[in-house]
Structure formats: C-alpha cells, structure tokens
Amino acid sequence: MKCIIFNDKENSDKSLSRLNKGRQVGIQRFWKIKLFHDFIFQKVWSSIKKQCTNLELVKTMIYTGEYNVKALNNVKRSCGSKIKEMNELIAKEDALLNKVTKISGHEELKEEVVKHVNSIKQIFQNIKDSNIRAIEQQSKNAEGQKNFFYYIKNKIPFTELRTTPLVTRQGIIQQKGVDAKFSTDLILLAQSNAFDVAILLSGDA
Description:
The protein has helices at 9-20, 33-48, 69-102, 107-155, 178-191; strands at residues 2-8, 56-66, 159-165, 167-169, 172-174, 197-201. With 205 residues, it is of the alpha/beta class. A 4-stranded parallel beta sheet has the order 3-2-1-6, sandwiched between helices. A hairpin with a 2-residue loop joins strand 4 (167-169) and strand 5 (172-174).
C-alpha cells in the first residue's frame, strides 16, 4: 500500500511552537524535517499494521508560502513609512524638550514634563526599533527559506515543494492559498489512486 505525507509547514511549525511553550531551554523539541517525516510515517504505520502489513512512503509534499521580491519590498515600504513617522514624532518631542529646558523657574513642573516627554519618546523609539527589526527579520527569513528549499530539492528524494506567493496585509507578510492547494492536491491524488494512506501534518482545524 502507498502512503503520501501532506505537510502544511507553517501550521505544523506552529504545532512545534505550542509543544515548546513552557519548556525550558535545553529540553525544547526540534526536528530535522526528514527525520520528522520518517518518524511520523513509522508512527502511523505501527498503528495500522493490523490492517496494513505493507506500507510504503512514496512521496512527501510540503506546502508553504514563498518569499518574493514584491512581498519583501512591500514590507520595507510599510516599515520604512512607519520609521519615518516615528522619526518625525521623536523630533517634535525633542523640540518640545528644548523649549521646556529654556523655561526658568517651575523646576518641579519642568521635571515632570521632561519625564513625560522622554517616556513618550521611548514609546516612539520602541515602535521604530520594532519596524527596523521586522525588515531585518523578513530578510533573514527569506534567506533561510532559500537555503531550506535548496535542501529539500537537492537532499531529500521523493519530496515536492508546493508553494504559493507570500502576500502583505498592512505591512505584515502572510501566507495565502496554501490551504486550497493542499486540499485540491489531496482530492486529485485520491481520485487518481496515488495513495492508500494520507498523513496530514497541520495545526489547522
């Protein structure tokens, strides 16, 4: 009998994150994707051996959103706009601080105003920093995905990447269309008798 693994990577990765939540560093669970797939296959086979004495993993299909220039540029544009806005707000707070420090007398009030303005500045700075990190993180993620795709295509036989372009919504990169591709492939391959057993890896009801 033939088996195909269908791995919705983003959702199965979220399942790993939930598994690791609350675990101390050093006992968190991590996997190499081939070892993970082999482990799951053996686990499933051992549970159905009474009904199936021979089961062969013929293919693994990995579903994920794919980074692209448009999505990355949209993130840079959106975050860049927010960084510019925060710089302008910080400059206004600095100008206010400059005026306050020139006022003579009312030292207690001046101290209170300075403290308040500095706290507002810190909020703006935190927003600015988070957007700078977002640009850097998405660039790292794109490079990491490139290496991951190379590994899948060149190191793991009988494994197919099924991707859809990542999109941006309000400056946030999101995966769209993977569920539809996942379910369509599942139905079409079932109709063509490509498998007897399907293993679905997901965290999505």
